[in-house]
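Field log, afternoon session.

UNIT: design team B
ACTIVITY: writing a sequence onto a fixed backbone
BACKBONE:
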């Protein structure tokens, strides 16, 4: 029996030789990835925490007016909205409307130290943002016509696992690139990923 496409990819992935990049480049890259994982995890944790509270409140307004004709929130709806953290250790959360959707946008900025291009210590930041859709409203009447009840699962990422996957992915790209040049079929294998 012939292996599936995924099994073939995994077999190549597992048997790659380890390639070490320049120490400075790797450190800068991994510092950024670690900060990104931290930002993603903080945003996901906040969305997971807010999700049941905010959805429970919004659920009580199904079929009722939530937006006024000027585009703002209806006073009754706005007054009871759960308070969101704002500028709290780089975390910012706020309610947003777009077309006919109401959602929460949460963003996080994480500061980290890394090496500059001359190997000097340097301060950088990494950001991430995500959304929690709450419902849709009728743009003519401002009435909440649908709520998004299904809970969204926001995963947490382990930096060491992400790092190992990225090292293997980089090795795979280098291996495929070397095979493409030998076979004279540029980008053929890259398109398989």
């Amino acid at each position: 029996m012939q292996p599936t496409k995924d099994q073939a990819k995994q077999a190549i992935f597992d048997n790659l030789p380890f390639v070490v990049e320049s120490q400075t480049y790797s450190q800068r890259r991994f510092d950024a990835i670690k900060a990104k994982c931290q930002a993603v995890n903080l945003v996901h944790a906040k969305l997971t925490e807010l999700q049941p509270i905010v959805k429970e409140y919004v659920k009580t307004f199904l079929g009722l007016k939530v937006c006024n004709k000027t585009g703002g929130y209806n006073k009754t709806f706005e007054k009871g909205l759960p308070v969101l953290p704002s500028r709290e250790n780089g975390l910012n959360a706020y309610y947003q409307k777009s077309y006919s959707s109401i959602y929460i946008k949460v963003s996080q900025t994480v500061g980290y130290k890394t090496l500059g291009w001359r190997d000097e210590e340097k301060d950088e930041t990494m950001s991430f943002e995500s959304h929690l859709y709450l419902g849709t409203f009728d743009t003519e009447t401002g009435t909440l016509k649908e709520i998004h009840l299904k809970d969204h699962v926001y995963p947490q990422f382990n930096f060491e696992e992400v790092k190992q996957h990225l090292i293997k992915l980089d090795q795979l790209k280098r291996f495929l690139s070397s095979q493409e040049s030998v076979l004279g079929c540029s980008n053929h294998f890259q398109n398989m990923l």
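LOG NOTE: Residues 21-156 form one domain.
NEXT ACTIVITY: expression trials, pending approval
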